[in-house]
Records
---
Amino acid sequence: MYLKKALWAEEVASKVSPESEPQQDSAAMVVQELVDSLNRQRLYREITLALKTGLRDARAEFSFLRIRGLRSLLNFLRSVAESDSTIQLFCLTQSVPELRVVPALFQHSLKEPQDVRVANLDHLFGVEPLKITSPSTDAEVALALRVLEGCCLLHRESTALAHHHKAIQDFEACNGIEEVAELIRDKQLDENLRLKCGEFLLLLIGHVNGREKPPLAAIHEDISRLLGEKSASLIWAASQFGSTLDPKERLTALHIQAGRVLESLDLY
């Protein structure tokens, strides 16, 4: 969902003349404050509605519905990132439990798959149907990671919330480094997917750099073993980029550095 601009608000603002008399000027300021307040309330309602709609599908039992919800959330985050005011309103919504994006991601799309076994056949003879949740597909996980990345870039507390769900610990337990490295090394794989894996690896290493305790305490040794010394050195240097850049410049730098990592792997 893309956030719309209020045309009536722009019309009111255009009628405010800088050469107006003091009384008219004060009245115009009052009107403008009212317009700003109404516009902020409208944006908050639209953000809340977009979150509720996207999260409803993201929490669904079937993967195709969750993918639809994740795409909606991703488009929504792109719209939010266009202005500071919408970013502030989005951060405000993340204090409401039912509107939080990160827990929904880890409870559904990024949830570790479980072996569901049918203990008995009572549901065949009863009225209540058996509730089955379809596992996450690769496309769903990739979308969920992009949504998670966007939330963490726009809302600092979402990063801490992701730690609360033990994302890094689960990533290590599932041999995530090996899986990501295998995808990056696979030259037959889609180039965009390899780039996204490279970006994810750069963000991960930049975040856990310098850890002396688990999880991922030996991440540099693992990267050297899986991708080679030269590529590992480039990844370590590239992961230190742009912490002072604004979000758009940081994303551009991240994309460029990930491309260089892939080029180094293709050369050796």
---
Amino acid sequence: MCQQTTHQKEKPPIHQWFLGMIVASIFSFAYLIIPIYLLSSACCLILRYPTTNASLAVALPMFISIIIPPLPSTFILRLLKPMLYYFDYEAIYTDDKNVRQAIAGGKNFLFAAQPHGILSFVGMCAAVSKPDDAMKVPTAAASAVLQTPLLKNLMGIFNLVDASAHNLKKILKGGGSVLIYIGGIAELFKSCRAEERLYLKKRKGFIKLALREGVDVVPIYLFGNTSVLSALKHGPLATLSRKLQVSLTWFWGKYYLPIPRDEKILYVVGKPLGLPHIEEPTQEDIDKWHAVYCDEVTKLFELHKERVPTYKHKKLFID
């Protein structure tokens, strides 16, 4: 049985919509401004421009951020609730009761989400909607995000962990569950409002990891991640983004500014795939369960795309 959560049935009050726009825009503007600020601060420090004291003052927020670790916070997540109304957020949990019971009984899961998008506003809204769940199941992020001053503190409220294979293995071996974005930054540059493209064919490492550790995989589809913002897919910034595995390219939404489009978004959690525990999986084992995963992701897309106006006529391509 599906559990459905909707945060907007009618048009929200204008103040809620406006606050939601501000909250969402803080994240998108920060992703553009923080790298520029860090580069400018570094240049000021190196050149001691305009003076040594002035350059130190400019760089002070950066130094403070380096010292302060990321702090996951349910309190702050609850303050971001207007964002749910701005986007008309909805969530569907296909097998929520059984998954929760399994977790309570000691079973752990690898939650696999797609598409990545420029910024995962659907994933952020899911965390805001259920902040306690976000604290129990961390989200894996690129090392660059976790190590970049200011950015690590801003995004750290969502309970992020390093997405390295070593760290994921450590979490799963310790009995924890984790959410990962399968396509990563490579998928960002496939974002398009006309069609949906997932970078998935070559992404089989998560299946191998799940089989080895004996954890089940739960597919998640994020409708709206690729439509609320558009990205510049070429040029030096795009190339740098790919190398650093972090969004550094120029992107835009409403009014050609980094303001996300206020469109309906949908968070869909599928059923566990039922992976077996195979300590030394063969390539055939990995390919088999990867194909099962791709089929389930396709089913989720086709089953629920009609609920999202911007997706009704979209076709899904798995690259």
---
Amino acid sequence: MKVILVILHTLLSLTLALPIDNDRIVYPDYKIIEEIVDRFGDYERDPKSLFDDPNLLKSENATAAYLIDDEADTKYEYGTFYQGDMILKDDQMDIINSLRPVNDQAEFNDDSDLGTRTGILWAGYRWPKNSKGTVIVPYVIDSHDFNTFDELKILFAMLDIEKYTCIQFVPRSSERNYVHIHSGVGCNSHLGRQGGRQLISLQRKGCMSRGTIIHELIHALGYDHMQNHNDRDKYVYILWDNIVETQKNNFQKVSPYLFSNFGTQYDFYSVMHYEPYAFSKNGKPTVVPKDSKFNKIIGQRNALSSGDAERINNMYKCYS
């Protein structure tokens, strides 16, 4: 017990020492260690062994996984899928392609909220609530691909989302619809609930920072990228001449008839925002905030932003 208290005290001290210079990033507090120990300590309820030895001091593993975060390498998010890292079903792609693309000059002359849309509107692609109003997302973590330390990183990312939303990730038992997290090629996810098993790829090299894991989990919940916001030209410049020619489609604004920001504003702090050099062909920026104070903020992969949490809660009507 004394060792546990020392570890928790050290964790608290380090957490308080984090260089928080704004109130937009939601940094998890040290009590999350207690949550992970309590939640996954019952091996009968959760048959997946998170530790090689059940008698091992679990809090030491949890503390290490919490404190030692991989450096995000967002190039692994910039793949060949929709907007780089989102896998769409055929019907999703057909509907998106059937609508007039929204380019960087086009605007909607509508007084509604059509200018604030980037989260999927189709209710059929959302995860269901239980009788208590909690959104349940069953998951499987491929134990052949990840070690104990990796699994803990994934679980911490899940708990970060759970802490500020009505989402709960639960180990799959026999549910038909679930996410299967594996180490594939790059970092990518399906957009929203697909039905049956749907993959989230977290390549062990490059995709294991907490923010990157949160990013891909949020795609699975149904939200895409902030800079594709239909109103983005008020906030960022898209430098088209610096973008790889075949990747310019990844910067198209999304159709306001398919996606929504659910009443929230453009969020430079979002874990769902591209970093400044996304898909650059020449090492020069492709996305530049009009307000230069956000130049080093966009593309952060440290934690959920308060805006990210608000959008999830609004999308799933968590408190209604």
---
Amino acid sequence: MASATFAANPNSENEPWIERPPLQGIQFRIWHLMFFCLCAFGVLIVLICCCIRIRVPRTKQEIEADYKRKKIATKFRKRLKIISNQDMEAVDLRKALEIIIDADYQQDLQQQKAVVLQVNTDEQEKLISDQKSSFGKAVANVIKVGRLSMNKRQILSMYQVSTLAGF
């Protein structure tokens, strides 16, 4: 009874090329090395395709949607830092979203107030610089009285009154 060995076939003259050892002194055969290389290549393909997420989106809309989702997710993660650690135990997704929306609303409200103040200041400076004309004088009088919130129609009527009165 013959036992299986890694040694080359003793009848080496009639031995096919795949059964020969690749180098002298190595007990592996060529088909062993081919199998190991094929297995390594298969593992490499599995790692590239499955572990490293490579996916080509189908459409331009899908690419843009993925980009927007990532932006929203990063903004949401940044906003979650607003919530204190003690509150995080009782917070679920809806409560976190409410807290973030409330914080954004407060921030937007402050920005709008700053913009309105800046616009009012710019309008006052522009109107005061136009005081050379009679219309500018009438507008300056309106500002002095404190009626800045009037609309254009009211300011024009004030202009007509001031021109009739001889300001």
